């Protein structure tokens, strides 16, 4: 195949080096799943599903995404290349769908890079908490300004994007070291959170919250829970829908090693550790976290505080916005500064993990598309010193910075859940179909890939269908559908349609241009790219 590859592909070798070990892939994928960051947001939707069982919903979410995890494990062994999803979607479903899938990743992660750092969910409560503990109103004000002041918000998101870009410019070996260090810190912090919550119990949490809140003129724990009027009898449909929300926000993101497959050491051990072992570990951690929320923090309190806050009508109370799990878990540690600082510092890794993985996905997609001659060869430039595809990284950063400005200063925001649903469709559903097609020629993996990909496609399609269907039926100002599609839905749809149309047009133009230069692009997609 060597001579044919040299003739067909833009380069004979990718220039990327296989450096990622089993430990690296495990930590990489766990950081993408990030249970502490991901579990709280879907639980805020429980207000629309009174009577839903949160523990059962978490199990449902994990089981619904399990076939996708196995599908990625098998396809990862079959096609160990960077930008793996793009590679096998373009080979088994055709280059047009492959191009769409690649561009959805490039622009989806580029547009959302500032959102993925989640200033309001971690960095804001970080400064608010420091201000409260050290009696420094300036830090509280700084935290508030990071989201309320346009200039502060723009500067902070720009700085975060540039930091992420600086890391992405490093070699994969150093990126893995950074991500591994942050992930270990995140795991330690998560264990501390779990230990703290279970050690104090419900009574301890109630006492701690009431003591802190009332000392600041705020409501007691009972004041907040007494306003919860929804029924608590078991709701099967609500439990299923909540499970799908958890799946779509947490468990479905289990394919980080696939996007750097060409940089993972050969053999099934690294892929198994990165896809399956990390998934099981994250699922167990998620269940324990949900148990701590249910048993210690309390469902009624969590829903009411997340929905309405915990300040009085005059603004008195704890000056930390309860928008993420972090705001709740700091309450019992306010009098223990070392534990509090450990939790606060580890929380800084929660959401930035998505930005790192998203950046890897986007840049590796550009690199793979260029290898297939659909982007200029400049995107294949690998720095001899840094050992990274620096040009792809710089273009990705430019996309992120442009949309960061458009979002903050021009109001170009996207619907979060619409983005999640779209990504499930264009990433995981299409990938499942490609894996199903690939199973016909997968040799010894054929039957396992066939079953896992079929179940994955059915599971993802069912999740999307139920969310869209129920969302449509409950699209009222106070209904689930209204919250599900909150944000600029029409611009979100138009952007998605634009990406799809632009991808197809780009492919046809690139194909025509390459043909004029004597290159048959169709031949590219009959072979797997070189390592």
UniProtKB/TrEMBL annotation:
The protein's name in its UniProt record: Amino acid permease/ SLC12A domain-containing protein
GO annotation, cellular component aspect: membrane
Coiled coil, from the record: none
Subcellular location: Membrane
Species of provenance: Sulfuracidifex tepidarius
Major location category of this protein: membrane
BP GO terms, sorted: transmembrane transport
Listed PANTHER family: AMINO ACID TRANSPORTER-RELATED, MEMBRANE PROTEIN
Cited InterPro entries: AA-permease/SLC12A_dom (IPR004841), APC_superfamily (IPR050367)
Domain of life: Archaea
Keywords: Membrane, Transmembrane, Transmembrane helix
Transmembrane stretches, start-end: 26-48, 54-75, 151-172, 178-200, 234-256, 276-298, 310-331, 337-357, 388-406, 412-436, 448-469, 489-507
Occurrences of domain Amino acid permease/ SLC12A (ranges): 53-509
Membrane topology, record value: Multi-pass membrane protein
């Amino acid at each position: 195949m060597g001579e044919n590859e040299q003739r067909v592909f833009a380069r004979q070798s990718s220039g990327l080096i296989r450096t990622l070990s089993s430990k690296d892939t495990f930590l990489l994928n766990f950081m993408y799943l990030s249970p502490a960051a991901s579990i709280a947001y879907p639980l805020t939707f429980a207000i629309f599903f009174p009577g839903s069982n949160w523990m059962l919903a978490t199990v449902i979410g994990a089981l619904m995404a399990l076939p996708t995890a196995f599908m990625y494990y098998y396809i990862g062994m079959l096609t160990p290349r960077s930008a793996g999803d793009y590679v096998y979607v373009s080979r088994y479903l055709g280059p047009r769908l492959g191009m769409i899938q690649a561009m959805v990743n490039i622009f989806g992660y580029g547009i959302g890079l500032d959102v993925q750092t989640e200033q309001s969910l971690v960095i804001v409560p970080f400064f608010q908490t420091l201000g409260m503990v050290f009696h420094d109103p300036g830090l509280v004000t700084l935290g508030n300004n990071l989201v309320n002041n346009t200039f502060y918000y723009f500067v902070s998101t720009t700085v975060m994007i540039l930091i992420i870009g600086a890391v992405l410019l490093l070699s994969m070996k150093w990126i893995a070291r950074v991500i591994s260090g942050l992930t270990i810190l995140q795991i330690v912090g998560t264990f501390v959170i779990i230990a703290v919550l279970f050690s104090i119990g419900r009574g301890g949490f109630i006492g701690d919250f009431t003591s802190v809140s009332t000392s600041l003129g705020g409501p007691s724990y009972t004041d907040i829970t007494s306003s919860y009027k929804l029924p608590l009898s078991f709701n099967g449909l609500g439990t299923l829908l909540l499970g799908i929300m958890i799946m779509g926000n947490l468990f479905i993101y289990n394919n980080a090693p696939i996007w750097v497959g060409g940089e993972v050491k050969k053999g099934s051990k690294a892929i198994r550790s990165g896809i399956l072992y990390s998934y099981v570990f994250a699922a167990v951690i998620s269940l324990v976290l949900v148990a701590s929320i249910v048993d210690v923090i309390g469902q009624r309190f969590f829903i009411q505080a997340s929905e309405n806050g915990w300040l009085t009508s005059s603004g008195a109370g704890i000056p930390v916005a309860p928008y993420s799990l972090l705001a709740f878990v700091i309450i019992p540690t306010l009098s223990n500064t070392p534990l509090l600082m450990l939790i606060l510092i580890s929380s800084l890794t929660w959401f930035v993990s998505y930005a790192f993985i998203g950046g890897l996905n986007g840049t590796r997609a550009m690199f793979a598309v260029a290898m297939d001659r659909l982007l200029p060869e400049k995107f294949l430039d690998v720095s001899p010193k840094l050992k990274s595809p620096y040009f792809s990284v710089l273009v990705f950063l430019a996309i992120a910075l442009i949309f960061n400005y458009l979002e903050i200063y021009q109001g170009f925001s996207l619907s979060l859940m619409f983005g999640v649903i779209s990504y499930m469709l264009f990433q995981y559903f299409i990938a499942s179909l490609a894996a199903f097609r690939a199973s016909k020629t997968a040799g010894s993996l054929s039957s396992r890939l066939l079953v896992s990909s079929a179940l994955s496609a059915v599971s993802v399609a069912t999740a999307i269908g139920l969310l869209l269907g129920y969302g449509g039926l409950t699209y009222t100002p106070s209904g689930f559908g209204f919250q599900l599609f909150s944000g600029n839905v029409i611009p979100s749809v138009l952007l998605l349609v634009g990406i799809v149309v632009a991808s197809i047009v780009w492919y046809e133009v690139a194909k025509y241009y390459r043909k004029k230069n004597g290159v048959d692009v169709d031949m590219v997609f009959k072979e797997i790219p070189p390592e």
